[in-house]
Specification:
Blueprint: E1 2-9, E2 14-21, E3 25-33, E4 40-46, E5 49-55, H1 60-73, E6 83-90, E7 101-102, H2 105-113, H3 122-135, E8 140-145, H4 155-158, H5 164-170, H6 179-193, E9 201-207, E10 211-217, E11 220-224, H7 246-255, H8 259-268, H9 271-276, H10 282-292, H11 295-318, E12 324-328, H12 329-334, H13 336-350, H14 356-361, E13 367-368, E14 377-380, H15 385-399
Parallel strand pairs: 1-6, 6-8, 9-12, 12-14
Antiparallel strand pairs: 1-2, 2-3, 3-4, 4-5, 7-8, 9-10, 10-11, 13-14
This protein binds adenosine-5'-diphosphate.
Length: 402
């Protein structure tokens, strides 16, 4: 029996879950937000109760201390020695690690050296790692990368048709993200279907604030929709997804902006928000369509639906067919409307058929929503990145006899 911490450190936040392994139950979870401010927030959920405090938190080191002190003061652990491992979600490792790794000096150097590929996340992830290493010396720390699962993509899928020297000099290629989620739900889908993942062709559709798809053939990613950065692919809450790259220079000229300023608009002012002018949240868009028949809210949703279908169709052909389509993350798990609209568009060409009642009932839970006649099974699998992080910590700790 082990207590394992799964950590997701952002630039101003630190999310954590303490899990009991191998039981795979969550003991406590929480988040420190607005790190660096006098009025930072600390929310903790323990034994069904949620508590929130506002307090000053200077930096990530202090956030880690507050979390660990709280575990002790609430009697959740008697001493910090009960925590046998810590797993960190890390955005980027370039093309270095195809699997999670035990953190040592070399791993820290790699995470640091690819910070230009994930400037918002990698430095924050590193601060989180260092803060936990200091607070829990001698405890095994594992890095679980968002990019690792996609490293099996063939060269033709990961290379851009740009001057090859950009790849050689700067690592310009497609990496893909949400790898932890795609890995988790594709393996859970295989378990659900009762077949080895090595015998399946699965299309995973992760629709949260960030959105991406992956084509997982025989357990290995052969293509994914995000690229060098998480801007490529589907339109998302505030991100444009793929566009004609010439738009960047065109708008920079028209509006007197730098390329980086235009890219910021593609990251933060586009997608659902940019088209609808209302919100980046799918629920707000659905409400506007229902209550006001809001044309642009509907358009934002339909542009995304069309692109989801474009990718599914492309992955279907690329893998020579598909056994399952798996929906996950906020929208994928809790928007039967999106699932129905997407599957409806796949019906004629791919013979996908869903059971409308089952689709509505499968809300935030695991289940199959396709009919027995459907040519491809359609599943909903709630993602659980923290659980996969904790499983990786346990698996890698075993390799060290811990
Ligand atoms: P993140 O990528 O930040 O982890 P989530 O996976 O939580 O995000 O997904 C957030 C998205 O899920 C938001 O667009 C939100 O509107 C959407 N979502 C959550 N619940 C529902 C729901 N009941 N119906 C439609 N969309 C939902």
């Amino acid at each position: 029996m082990k207590k394992v911490m799964a950590v997701n450190a952002g630039s101003s936040s630190l999310k954590f879950q303490l899990l009991l392994m191998p039981e795979e139950t969550v003991i406590v979870e929480g988040i420190v937000e607005r790190i660096g401010f006098e009025d930072a927030g600390f929310t903790i959920k323990y034994q069904g109760q949620k508590e929130k405090k506002v307090l000053p938190v200077a930096d990530h080191g202090e956030a880690v201390k507050i979390v660990l002190d709280t575990l002790i003061s609430k009697g959740i652990v008697k001493s910090l020695e009960e925590i046998s491992g810590v797993g960190h979600r890390v955005l980027h490792c370039g093309d270095r690690y195809a699997d999670s790794v035990i953190i040592d000096d070399e791993v820290i150097d790699v995470i640091d050296s690819v910070s230009d590929l994930g400037p918002l996340h990698n430095p924050a992830n590193l601060i989180g790692i260092k803060a936990f290493m200091k607070a829990l010396p001698g405890v095994i720390e594992v890095a679980v990368f968002d990019t690792s699962f996609h490293l099996t993509m063939p060269e033709e899928a990961y290379m851009y048709a740009v001057p090859y020297s950009w790849y050689e000099k700067y690592g310009v290629r497609r990496y893909g993200f949400h790898g932890t989620s795609h890995r988790y739900v594709s393996h859970e889908a295989a378990r659900f279907l009762g077949k080895p993942i090595e015998d399946l062709r699965i299309i995973t559709v992760h629709l949260g604030n960030g959105c991406s798809l992956a084509a997982v053939k025989n357990g290995k990613v052969v293509d994914t929709s995000m690229g060098l950065t998480p801007l490529e692919g589907l339109p998302m809450g505030t991100r444009s997804g793929s566009i004609d790259p010439a738009i960047i220079g065109f708008i920079a000229d028209k509006e007197g902006l730098t390329a980086q300023e235009v890219i910021n608009k593609l990251n933060y002012e586009s997608g659902y928000l940019g088209i609808s002018g209302i919100s980046s949240d799918a629920r707000d868009l659905r409400k506007a369509v229902e209550e006001e028949n809001h044309h642009l809210a509907n358009l934002a949703i339909q542009i995304q639906n069309k692109r989801i279908v474009d990718y599914i169709a492309s992955y279907y052909v690329y893998m020579g067919g598909a056994d399952a389509i798996v929906f996950t993350a906020g929208i994928g798990e809790r928007s039967p409307e999106t699932r129905e609209e997407v599957c409806e568009r796949l019906k004629e060409a791919l013979g996908v058929e869903i059971d409308k009642q089952k689709n509505i009932e499968t809300w935030g839970i695991e289940g199959e929503i396709s009919t027995p006649n459907s040519k491809i099974k359609v599943l909903v699998i709630p993602t659980n990145e923290e659980l996969l992080i904790a499983r990786d910590v346990v698996r890698l700790a075993k390799t060290q006899g811990k």
